[in-house]
Task: structure prediction
Amino acid sequence: MKLTPICEMKMHYTWIDFVDYGVGGQYVGMLEGTVTGDRLRGTLKSVNVPAKRPDNVNCPATTSLSLRTGDARYAWVNNTIGAVEGILNTTTDQALVRAYACENELATVPV
Result:
């Protein structure tokens, strides 16, 4: 598999809540921000639902990405699976995320 950069996202939480279901729990949050990159740019609205471990660590720090659009210019995102890495400033609720497309290198190999 090959990781190809898609974009960088700068976001901030507009709403966040915590669901306490015993061991750990779960955060649910809405984010808004901007997307910049060679393949994508614009604004973003996102939902994040990281689980919280009993040792007070939110998971995951690296995760998958699914994008959806009705805009024909960006239709390729509807069939793209991505991976992201990011950081969150818990004092300001600001996040910086880099997104990569996971490209199947075996798709071109004869079987």
Notes: The chain has a mean pLDDT of 89.
